[in-house]
Amino acid sequence: TGSTQPQRMLEAVQKNATKGDPESVFSAIDYYCRHKEWAMNVGDEKGLILDSVLTEVNPSIALELGTYCGYSTVRIARLLSPGSKLITVEFNPAFAAVARQIIAYAGVQDKVTLVEGPSGDLIPKMKERFGIKSFDFVFLDHWKDRYVPDTKLLEDCGLLRKGTVLLADNVICPGAPEYLKYVRNSPRYESRYFKSNLEYSKVEDGLEKSVFLG
Ligand SMILES: O=C(NC/C=C/[C@H]1O[C@@H](n2cnc(C(F)(F)F)c2)[C@H](O)[C@@H]1O)c1cc([N+](=O)[O-])cc(O)c1O
Ligand SMILES: [Mg+2]
Fold it and tell me: Which of 96, 154, 156, 180 is the least buried, fewest Cβ under 10 Å from its Cβ?
């Protein structure tokens, strides 16, 4: 069965991971994507950088743009302190459906709110819908041409505060050149590049960590 690749990833999780064990869930996805079918998860190498930034920030309220199948959702949620929340936004209903099942299988569903729809519509509604003052941490891993407009939208909606950490995937491959220019040239951000490799490959990629200065 498993007609789509996300469904085959879900099957690999159900077959090889332990229910309620987040680590086994993303490890099963990594194994599947490294040995069977490549997929655009942040992956194990860049995942270690994501883990270390998360541990440093220890966010009470985090935002992820681009759930896809929930790989980084599970990676982030497992590291959140009790009572902390992750809101993850996904545009594609089929991906969201698989992600919900992977998130539930990992047992992190109580920490995660998955919202379906376009970021442009959803970001302006975050405050009223989720009673959020501002985000402590934002992981950008959705369409690369949306990184700049959505960062500007987060600023304009007052969803960033002094010290909010933005972490952006794929700034080298596929690349987000406009975003790099934006955060590196703006006096409102302190930016740093974490060199790594594209998931399950030897091609260079990296994460850009940018602290909003208010
Ligand atoms: O294209 C890549 N990622 C695009 C990722 C796109 C994902 O973000 C969702 N989205 C779109 N808008 C929203 C919002 F915000 F509205 F919710 C969410 C899309 O439905 C999709 O699931 C990519 C490509 C490569 N690669 O090597 O080609 C490697 C990677 O790590 C990548 O992330
Ligand atoms: Mg990515």
Answer: 156
Contacts of 110 (CB under 8 A, 6+ apart): none
Contacts of 57 (CB under 8 A, 6+ apart): 136, 137, 165
Closest CA to 142 of 99, 196, 194: 99
Q: What is the dihedral of CA 170, 173, 177, 178, to 10 degrees?
A: -50
**Closest Cα to atom 1, ligand 1: which residue?**
143
pLDDT above 60 for 10: yes
Residue among 142, 157, 169 to mutate when testing ligand 1 (max atoms within 8 A of CB) = 142
Tokens standing for 180?
A: 């790099």
pLDDT at 2: 58
Using DSSP bridges, classify how beta strands 85-90 and 135-140 pair: parallel, antiparallel or unpaired. Answer: unpaired
